[in-house]
Amino acid sequence: MHFGAVPLTKDGRLSAKEVIGNKKALTEFQDRYNQFINERGFQLERGESKLVTQKKHQDMDQYKQGTKYHETVFYQAKKK
């Protein structure tokens, strides 16, 4: 599930830092949200922290190279 929000301050400015805080605060918010939803009968699973998985972010180009994205798109287009 994805949740979209616009971090507006009380005076109408955009400021994720003021509304959400830092990465730790965001993680804590996501944990509380997951608990809140599950207490109301839904069965959502929270993803594992990258501290646990030790995974590192890849930029889009690295991801596409690793998955051979462009080759797949080319062959799919060729089949049509």
Compile the SSE list and pairings.
Layout: H1 16-19, H2 23-39, H3 50-53, H4 60-67, H5 69-79
Summarize the structure.
This protein has 80 residues and is an all-alpha fold.
Provide the descriptors you would attach to this structure in a database record.
single chain, about 80 residues, mainly alpha, extended, Recombinase, DNA binding, Mob_Pre
Characterization of this structure:
The protein has one domain (16-79). The two termini are 32 Å apart. 55% of the residues lie in helices and 0% in strands. The protein is mainly α and 80 residues long. The longest helix is centred in the middle third of the chain and has 17 residues, at 23-39. The mean pLDDT is 88. 0% of the residues are buried. It is extended.
Sum up the overall morphology in one term. Answer: extended
Give the count of helical stretches. Answer: 5
- Uncertain stretches of 5 or more adjacent residues: none
Please provide the count of β strands.
0
Q: From the alpha-carbon coordinates, what is the Rg to the nearest angstrom? A: 19 Å
Q: Structural class from helices and strands?
A: mainly alpha
Count of domains: 1
Pfam family, one: Mob_Pre
Family: Belongs to the plasmid mobilization pre family.
Protein name: Recombinase
GO molecular function, one term: DNA binding
